[in-house]
Amino acid sequence: MEENKRTRKNLFCFPVGTLGRDAVYALINSYLLTFVLFTHVLTGAQVAAVTGIMIAARVFDALNDPIMGNIIEKTRSRFGKFKPWLLAGSLSTSVVIYLLFNVRLQGWSFVCFFALMYFAFSITYTMSDISYWGMIPALGSDANARNQFTSRATLCAGIGGTLASMLIPMFSTGTGAIGGSTAVAYGRIALIIAILAPLFTLFTLFGVQEHRETVIVEKKKERFSLKQVFKTIARNDQLVWIAVIFLIQQVGNGMIIGGIGSTYIYFTFGYNGGLYSLFSIVGMSATAILMVTYPMISRKMHRKKLMGIMAAVSVTGYVLMLLSLAVPEAEMMKFWILVIGYMFSNFGQYCFYLIMMISIMNTVEYNEYKFGTRDEGIITSLRPFITKMSSALIVAITSVIYLIFGVTGYTNKISDLEQQCAQGAISEEQKLSEISGVIFGSTGGSQSGVLAWQSKGLLIIMTVLPCVLMLISHFLYKKKYQLDEEEYDRICGELKKL
C-alpha cells in the first residue's frame, strides 16, 4: 500500500519537474541561432565564429555528459546522488540564460561574450539534465512502471518545450514582439523562463522518493577515471548501437526546429512569429496523444513493429510537405499542407524518440546482467550526450545551408532594422514594412527579396534529409538492437534469481 502511494506521488512530481527545464532547452536549442541572426549584424567571419562556438560547446557538452554521469554515480549525500546536482544545475542555468539574452553587445565583443555564456550553459544544464533523467532507473525496474515514468516525463517535457516553441516566436517576431523589438522580447522571455524553471524543479526535489537505502553509508570515494566512463559505454554493445541509431534519428528530427523551419516560414509567408507558432502548435499537437497512450500501446505492440508503422506515417508527412511546392506562394493552402505534413512527420519521429529513450534505459539491466554493475548514472547520460551531439551537427548543417542559400544576407538587413527600431530611430510600423521589403522585394525595385530557389531549397533540405536519416535509423534498429521485450524480460528474470 505504501509502495503504491509512493509510486503515484512519484508519477506526478517527477514529470512536472521538467516543464521549465524543457522550456529552457527549447529557448536555446530552437531559437538561439535565430536570436543571434535576427538581432545582430554579423560579418561572415563573426557568423563562422558563432557557429564554431556553438559546435565546439555542444561537442564539449556531449563529451562532458558521461563525465557528469560518473560524478553523479559517485555522489553520496543524505539527499541521494541526483537531487544536489539537479538543484545546482537548475539555479545556475537560470543565471546563464538571463545574461545570454539580456547583455547588449555587438560585433566581436558579442562573439566573445557569447562564447563564455554558451560554454557556461553547457556545464550548468548538463548538471540538471543528467541528474534528472538518471533518476528513472532508480524509480523502478518494472518495465511498465519505467514506461510510465518515461512517457509522463516526456509528456511534460513535450508540454514545456511545445509551449515555449509556441509562445517564443509569437511574442518575439513581427507585430506581437514584446517591447516592439525582437532583442527586447527575447530578453524578457529569457527572464520569465529563468524564474519558472527552478520553480518547477522543486516538485522533483521535494516530491520524489527514490528506491534507495534510507541510511547512507559513507564510502571512500573512488578516484575519478575517464577511462572507466568510456569503458562502461564501449563494452555494452547494445548501448553503443542504440547510441549510434539515436544520433542519426535525432539529427534528422531536429532539422526543422533547429532554425530552418522558422526561416523558411518567414521567407515564404512573411515575418510573422504567430504564423510559425501556429505551424509548431498544429505540427506538434498529435504527439500529445502519443505521449499519453504510449504505455498502453507498448504493452500491446512490439517496439520494432511500432517503429515500422511510424516510419510509414513520417514518410507520408514528408511527402505532403514536399507537395506544398506545387501550390502558389500566395495561397494559404500551401501553408496548411505544410502544417499537416509536419504533424504526420513529427508524430512518427516522436514515437521513434520514445522508443529510443526506453531502449537506452533497458541497457542498464543488460549491463548488470553482463558485467555485474548497473552504472545507471553513466548509461543514462548517453541520452543527453546524443541529443547534444546531434544538436552540434544540426548547427553545423544549418549554418552551411544558410551560407549556401544566402540566408545571412537577409538576416543582417532584418537585424539592422530591428536595432534601429529598438533605438527609436524608426517606428515599429516602418520596421515591419521595410522587413517585408527585404523578404518579398520593395515596390520601387531597390530590393529583390528572397528568390524562389532559396526558399524552395530550404524546404527540400528540411524534408528529404530528415526522412532519409529516419529510415536509416529504423533499418539499424531492426538489425542491430537485440533487447526486444522478450529478451529484456528474460534478463530481468535472471537478475531476480541472483
Pick out its properties.
498 residues; mainly alpha; 21 helices
Describe this structure in words.
This protein is mainly α. It is built from 21 helices and no strands. It is globular, with a radius of gyration of 23 Å. The protein starts with a helix and ends with a helix.
- Series of secondary-structure elements, N-terminal to C-terminal: HHHHHHHHHHHHHHHHHHHHH
Largest sheet: none
**Structural class based on helices, strands and sheet pairing:** mainly alpha
Instruction: Write down the Rg.
Output: 23 Å
Number of strands: 0
Number of helices: 21
- Hey, roughly how much beta strand do the residues contain? under 5%
Low-confidence stretches: 213-224
Helix content: over 70%
From the N-terminal CA to the C-terminal CA, the straight-line distance is 26 Å
Q: Given the C-alpha coordinates, what overall shape results? A: globular
Mean pLDDT: 84
